[in-house]
Write a structure and sequence with these properties.
Strand content: 35-45%
Number of helices: 4
Radius of gyration: 14 Å
Oligomer: single chain
Distance between the termini: 26 Å
Low-confidence stretches: 1-10
Number of strands: 6
Largest sheet: 6 strands, mixed
Shape: globular
Mean pLDDT: 86
Length: 138
C-alpha cells in the first residue's frame, strides 16, 4: 500500500470536488500497486479511450497498456517499487479530474499528469489520459 498521508493537496474545494478528486487519486494510487497492475482489476481502471505518452516518449493505447502492464515497472516481486509524491488534483468539469504528481522508480524521477473521466452508470472513475516526463538526467 502507498502512504498518501502527505501526498494529497485538498485546497478549498467543495465536498463534491473533494469526492471526485479523491476517487481519481484512489484509482491512480491503485494503478501504482503491483498486485493491482497484475490483476483483473486493472482493465476496469482504464477508460476504453485511454491514451498515454510515457516517460520514454512512447504512445500507448488501451489495448497496448493492458497487454504490457503486468510486465512494466512496479509489477512483480523483484521489480522496483513506484514511489509517488506531491499529488495534486483539480476538478476540470463534473466528470473530469486532472492529477499531477512525481514518481521515482529505481532512482529515476518523472513528472506525471493524468486525466480521470467518470464513466456512465456504475463504471466509476477511469484513467482517460496519462503522460510521464523524465526529470533530471533521465
Amino acid at each position: 500500500m502507498i502512504d498518501t498521508s502527505d501526498t494529497i493537496d485538498h485546497g478549498g474545494e467543495s465536498a463534491e470536488e473533494r469526492a471526485a478528486i479523491a476517487a481519481a487519486v484512489d484509482g491512480e494510487l491503485r494503478l501504482l500497486e503491483a498486485d493491482v497492475r497484475a490483476s483483473a482489476e486493472a482493465p476496469r481502471l482504464f477508460d476504453p479511450e485511454f491514451v498515454e505518452v510515457g516517460a520514454s516518449g512512447r504512445r500507448w493505447t488501451y489495448e497496448e497498456m493492458l497487454a504490457a502492464l503486468p510486465t512494466l515497472h512496479g509489477t512483480g516481486a523483484d521489480s522496483p517499487r513506484i514511489e509517488a509524491s506531491g499529488m495534486r488534483g483539480v476538478l476540470l468539469a463534473p466528470d473530469l479530474v486532472h492529477l499531477t504528481y512525481e514518481t521515482e522508480i529505481a532512482g529515476r524521477r518523472a513528472r506525471r499528469s493524468s486525466i480521470w473521466r467518470k464513466g456512465e452508470g456504475d463504471t466509476g472513475w477511469r484513467l482517460y489520459y496519462h503522460q510521464g516526463t523524465p526529470v533530471g538526467g533521465v
